[in-house]
Amino acid sequence: MGFLIRMRWTLESEGATPLSLTSAPNCPVRSGILSVEFHRNLFLACDHSQYYAAEVADLRFSNLWSSDLNSGLSYIGNKAERGQKRYLAMAVRLEFLPGNVYVLTLVGDGEHRFTPQSIPEIMAALDKVEADPKACALVTTGEGKFYSNGLSLSLEDRGSKENMQLIDQFHALLKRILTYPIPTVAAVNGHAVAGGCMVALAHDYRFMRADRGFMFLSEIDIKLPFSPGMNAIIRCKLPVMTYHKAMLSAFRYTGQTAVEAGMVHSSPSDLQSTYQEALKLAKGLASRNFDRVVYQTIKKQMFKAEIKELEILATLEPIVASSKL
Q: The pTM is what?
């Protein structure tokens, strides 16, 4: 059984075979939007004139937005290339649950790295939640072994323009989460490393499973200094002793040691209980229906200095240019 997808931008079909309309699935076309349908590993697509079929591996597309019409789930993702192998770089799933809570999930078994493509997709999901007046709380989590393994930076050319631009994008994401107008809860499903740890820290509340995964800041090991904005996020969310230890030793915190260090609020026993406890808190907060303007204003007052640091453009180049792996 497939699900209907609407594509907002461009479908690039490589070697796709046209099908007759009589043999194609019921795939309604709307003005300006391509409609496609998945059937296992077969990708069926229609534009305004004809249908095409090709193996998923033979297709390349970008800026994908999709909606499972039966469950109300939304997906945002992009395709990327690594050598000759095409893979889903990151996808974001949004689900609106009873209790006026949205759940944002980083989909797939990958490392959920923050890239120039994936950050805008997360921001777009945050836009969608914020645009819904019924949304009263947000939970973020991931699939697989990683909550996130951080930024996809080039360590060969650390001071590159591309690295600096990615760091600026990441600062914007941290600022967005830090000042989000509804309560945010991170349900850390696995490893939260470097930038992944910072994103979790930017949330109002954090839960981390006890049975698997580490939360840590690896920058000292990869010989990459923190930007002022990154440092600000970490400093404002951690107790002083934990701040020093995490920054200067790359200590790997388990769920339990993270609770003891004041890095997370709770460490339920396993993945499912972590998600359920995070969702329970989110629903409780959502039931209070905080005024968004007041909630965000308080956050901006709390983190006024950190916001200024996050708005500083990346300036790592003179520091990292002489750093050697």
A: 0.74
